[in-house]
Design a protein that fits this description.
The protein has two helices and 35 strands. It has 404 residues and is mainly beta. The strands form seven sheets. Strands 2, 3, 5, 8, 11, 12, 15, 16, 19, 20, 21 and 22 form a twelve-stranded mixed β-sheet that branches.
Length: 404
Amino acid sequence: MLRKDFTLETATARKVSDLWGEDKSSSVNYRSIEQTIVTYVLRSKSCMHSTVENCSSEGSVTGHHTTGGLIGKILYISSVDNFFSKGTVTGISSHDGAPSYYTGGITGNIIGLSDNGWYPSINNSYSTSDVSGAYNTGGLSGVIQDCNINYCYCVGSVSNSELTVGGFTGSAHENYTVTRCFWNVETDGLTETSGGDNNYGATGKTTTQMKTESTFTAASWNFTTIWDIDAGVSDGYPYLLQNAPDVPLPIGLSALNVTTNNGVVIVTWVTESETENAAFRIYRDGEIIAELEGAGTTTEPQNYTYTDQYVIPGRTYTYVLADVDLQGKETKHPEVEVKVEAEAEDGVDIDHTIGKAYPNPFNPVTMVPLNLAAPADVRAFLYDLSGRMIRELYNAPYPPVPTI
């Protein structure tokens, strides 16, 4: 993911959208803003015929007229995609006492021009900002008109002192579409809203529903390449994959060696640290041959060794080490190939080996590996502890001879 962070100084007596300037026919990508913006002017700047994508804004924004967490006003054929806003957005009175107008978590208002076929849009974006103002106050936008809003949500509180307030948008005029969008009716602070309510096309959901993936996948949200949800990220609400936090690997593997000596293969590895590591699995040629207990969580180096005695000299084997976390998730490490070059004692070549039963203990099935240096007639029997044969397991050439 290409990402560049810009550090901006705190602005005073400036317009909210000076974050982006007076944007006309431009593009803004991968910008992250974290600061407080305070404004005391009558009107904030706008984004016009422009594209803003893969951005975020975290902090406090205060303004009088048309104030948004990202852009004061989105106009005409502009688009905002893959954006989130966190913090507070506040509409305040002007110097002469006039109340604030158009305040929203992402934009103060989004307005197109349907006569020209100009419809600005907001897609795959969200706001967790707390929004307050006087007139036309909404969790996502203060007012919408001649525009399209798709796959967006907001979960912050919304309040106003005058008229037209909404959990998603404060008010709406003609020629707009709001599809597959949601807001949290339990955190919006509006006592008159409840689950299932409609706010100009957006659907009200409870906190539990907003933290449940199926709420969004049922509305065709893309949880493969755009969105994800995790209880430990974004307070359990959906987040954009481009902003996914770095997740530490269960282990910090500093060394892995596979060597051969006296007809056996020795697998050794060292970990610098382990996080919720339940076990290690060793694969030989794609099959699990052993599982060793991990150290759980530790910042101390750990040394591990496993000896594979059931190999045949002259053969080449591929080994893979995998770690398994406490939730059962397996992470495989790069494979290592080794050729066993040794002879049996007294110069007699080893023509077969019989491995240990795996798993052991078992119920109801276990596997006993048999390795042959060349095709041979194989007879295998099962005996009890007294030496009594219980069952004939195999009695035929191996590999089986094709029938012509």
